[in-house]
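call fold target=YbbR-like domain-containing protein
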Amino acid sequence: MFKQLLSGLNERKVKVFSLFLICSFLAWFISNLSDSYESRTNFALNYKNLPDTLLLGNKSVNSIEAKLRTSGFRFLYYNFINKRVDVDLSQVIAKNGNYLITEDALSEQIELQLPQSISLINLDRSQLFVDLYQVTAKELQIKPRLDLQFQQNFIMEGEPIITPETVLVKGPKNEIDTLTTIYTSKIEMTDVSSDFSENILLVFPKNLSNSVFSINRVNVKGKVVKFSEKAFDVPIRVLNFPKGYNVNIFPNSISVLCKATLEKLKKITLQDFEVIADYKQLNETDGNILFLEIVKKPENVYDVRMLENKINFVLEQK
């Protein structure tokens, strides 16, 4: 029993001693962390403010080593975070066909991004070479690819609205010189009877490995309205018939079918149409047939078409 009691006392002494030892170590560790130190650390580089005439290549430096002076606490903190600094490429200098940022300019940029409690002593290089190459820039028109199936008596009013209407491409002149238009991915919709709005990806040519585009998607909107049809019996005017002759046509008017909204159809009159038959266009093989042409029609309607496109005629000498 005495041995058991002695053993228990020894275990307690070991635990107490261990506790004091740990506390002493922590006190020493915290005291040392409060002191200032000089040490090296790596920063990932994030390039920004690229000039319009330049593009960033694949061989640019991705990180830089810097010597810093700060407290141990700061260095401990820095070891647990993803350290990144922005590099402003508007300060890039062209020299002997290369592009670089001087040590002074780079140091100033990095110092402005460091907390006040951290001092930058030096960098691992005297200048930063950046892999850049000359490019040209141009704006390209964006065109949508639509495959819309409307419900009966519904149609899209006007052209679709694309936002934005253009995309800026930057790349080598020989890559982008022939580009004029960029198309969207195909929009397929069925039973359309109401307005639509779709965010859609752009489709870029595959052979532009050294070019970049300002956006990769656009918004396409369309206004869908209900339409109706109305037939107008339009008189036919014959032009250029031979002198000394009268021309009789059969029939002397033609039905013209017009598609528009109900509001628009109510405002349309016969004076909004003109149908002609031009005798000069007559071929020997046509016989006594004249072909018709609509030369005047209402604005802002969806479709105007004649139910027949030819008439018979007879010439009578005066």
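return ok
The chain has three domains: 36-133, 135-226, 228-317. Residues 36-133 form a domain with the RNA Polymerase Alpha Subunit; Chain A, domain 2 fold (CATH 2.170.120).
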